[in-house]
Amino acid sequence: MACELFGWSNLDGGTLLRIRSRLAAFESMTFKEIFRNDSTGCHHIEAWKLTPAAKKKLAEIAPDQDILLSLRLTSAERIWGIRLKNVVDLLWWDPNHAVYESQRR
Question: Which site among 74, 83, 98, 99 is 20 to 30 Å from 48 CA-CA?
Fold first, then answer.
């Protein structure tokens, strides 16, 4: 399961191209547009709200991070990252929305 949550190794070429295209679209936007626009589905998540496995992995790679960025690709698929000034340092591809279990409305 850790590989599915925290690795990029399970990506096939088509999925990688789709992700690249979506990330390129974000590059044309400001952080304000990405994270204050409900249509993108992107938002900040406090680290304490992550699943136990994600919190453990985050403690290994970026123990001082309190806030992560969730970049929505599809209804379930996310890219997780950390903001470093004007750059997002990509952490994980989360194909099944398993890093943070949102409360359904």
Answer: 74
Round to whole Å and give the CA distance between 22 and 18. Answer: 6
What's the N-to-C CA distance of the chain in angstroms? 27
Q: What digits encode the pLDDT tens for the residues 70-94?
A: 999 998 899 999 999 989 999 999 9
Contact 80, 91 (CB under 8 A): yes
Cα–Cα separations (whole angstroms), residue 66 to 40, 44, 87: 22, 10, 17
| Cβ within 8 Å of residue 22, ≥6 positions away | 71, 73
**pLDDT at residue 41 greater than cutoff 70:** yes
